[in-house]
Amino acid sequence: MSIEINHLSFSYRGSKTKVLDDITLSFPRGHFVGLAGPSGCGKTTLARCLNGLIPHFYPGEMVGDVIIDGWNTQEHAAHELAQKVGLVFQNPENQLVAPNVEREIAFGPENLGVPRQEIRRRVEDLIRLIRLEEIRDKAPFELSGGEQQRVAIAATLALQPEVLVLDEPTSNLDPLSAFEVLQLLHRLNRENQLTVILIEHRLELVAPLAQELVILDGGCVVAGGPTREVLMDDKVADVGVSIPKIVQLVKQLNHPRLQAVCPLSVDSTVKAILEELEK
Ligand SMILES: Nc1ncnc2c1ncn2[C@@H]1O[C@H](COP(=O)(O)OP(=O)(O)O)[C@@H](O)[C@H]1O
Ligand SMILES: [Mg+2]
Questions:
Q1: pLDDT tens-digit profile of 260-270?
Q2: What is the CATH classification number for the domain harbouring 69?
Q3: 258 alpha carbon to ligand 2 midpoint, in Å?
């Protein structure tokens, strides 16, 4: 299943400003894509377009198309689209509605009238997959921020979407919880072929995970493509997103072969430099 965005522009009702301005992008099946850009550039608005919250819940002027698995989002209801594309928000506590973790996971499918036995199966599968065994009976307020976010991810996956869009899911988490959530996304992408679109302005967090990056600025796509190419693109540094320090170092070393490898971690940079020295 793929997502195709064709010449998408959007302004919220009452404003003439195009928050998204002629965006054309595609997200192929099974990819892990990082979406970054400075605050206010339209990341959240784009996420809302990906699962039909725009145009169905946010009034405004939408031009162009978002096609999800052959469905035009303008022509399908939000609850139908939610079974194709799941959206996880920044603040997990705002998304949790049920008295405990099991009920939370069951909540979405219950609302869609999924048979009880099938709901039980999904709940058990997700508790195992997301490793929620220890907290399955707990109430949302008994959970840490990281646990809440993992539960929010499980509850979203209970509708069995093939694409998971996460809007800055770790920005309110401590570093260890953030790391655990990102590792979970990595695993779901690798082992369960889930397409992941991760909105995250801290590129040093997303770069090691994402095969591709899309950088937005002022509602436009500034750069998009394989992670390394995008990070080495000088246009991206000008936008005001934080280029990972290790990439800045590789750029400054100005060594063509090292730049071609563009290592994304300290370890891989050291390894690449040692290999160069041995040549
Ligand atoms: N519900 C809304 N109604 C009106 N304007 C909005 C709404 N949500 C966001 N905006 C505006 O759209 C622009 C882009 O916002 P947003 O998509 O949240 O950017 P980002 O997530 O990149 O910070 C901002 O100028 C913001 O004020
Ligand atoms: Mg946002």
A1: 777 777 788 88
A2: 3.40.50.300
A3: 34
